[in-house]
Amino acid sequence: MLATEQRSDKELAIAYANGDKECFTALLYRHKDRIFNYIQSLVKDKALAEDIFQDTFVKVISTLRRGMYNDNGKFIQWVLRIAHNLSIDHFRKNGRMPMLQTDGSFDIFSVLNCSDESIEEQIVRKQIHSDIRHLIKLLPPEQRRVLILRHYGDMSFKEIADITGVSINTALGRMRYALINMRRIAEENAIVLQA
Questions:
Q1: Least confident of 41-55, 71-85, 122-136, 143-157
Q2: In this structure, how many other beta carbons lie within 10 angstroms of the beta carbon of residue 124?
Q3: Which of 36, 77, 79, 129 is 20 to 30 A from 163 (CA-CA)?
Q4: pLDDT (average), residues 152-175
Q5: 147, 136 in Cβ contact below 8 A?
Q6: Is 108:132 a contact under the CB 8 Å cutoff?
Q7: Mean pLDDT across the chain
Q8: Residue 162: which CATH number?
Q9: Can you tell me the distance from the alpha carbon of 18 to that of 186, in angstroms, rounded to the nearest whole number?
């Protein structure tokens, strides 16, 4: 039998599901830094990241114990997806989804940056945030997911491709179409996204 550290994620997960608690410890130590850093990059708060990290592993343990885990050789992607979903759930519950600026010509998200604003400017910015959230909800699910991972999760297209199980080109294409569709929907509904 292989030493714990030489076993694959799948072997460790199966062994843990069959009662070998040491195997879960090995999985945790193998991936904890990557998972925690990923969560922290999403939520930008260490204490909150620690809470979501713990919630992630509670869900992982529960799924493994119930025998509901189907590996397909992608344990880390599965755990990162759980962490991502829990992070997004946190943002939804608290009504805040931070936007990040990207490169390029006019960026639909660049209108969300603010500095010293007057009350009027704050009201306009809040309306723009609301309009953009509404536009995102109208996107097809696969486009919405890539857009959220990229702009709210600050993920690279390689990371997005890994988590969603598509090629980088597909992820890039979905992002491109998401932005095109948001602009089109905004124009059709006379939504102004600039102050």
A1: 122-136
A2: 17
A3: 129
A4: 88
A5: yes
A6: yes
A7: 79
A8: 1.10.10.10
A9: 53
Question: Is 167's pLDDT higher than 90?
Answer: yes
Q: What is the domain range of residue 155?
A: 110-188
**Is residue 173 situated within a structural domain?**
yes
Q: Where are the alpha helices (DSSP H) in the chain?
A: 9-17, 21-43, 46-65, 75-94, 119-137, 141-147, 157-164, 168-188
Decide if 104 is inside a domain: no
Q: Distance (Å, rounded) from C-alpha 23 to C-alpha 7?
A: 9
Q: Which of 67, 94, 121 is the last residue of a domain?
A: 94
The single residue listed with the structure tokens 């997960």 is 13
C-alpha dist (Å) from residue 50 to 45, 53, 79, 87, 119? 9, 5, 15, 11, 35
Residue 194's pLDDT is: 58
Amino acid identity of residue 136, one-letter, is I
| CA-CA-CA-CA torsion sign (93, 98, 102, 106) | positive
Instruction: Give the confidence band of 174 by pLDDT, cuts at 50, 70, 90.
Output: very high
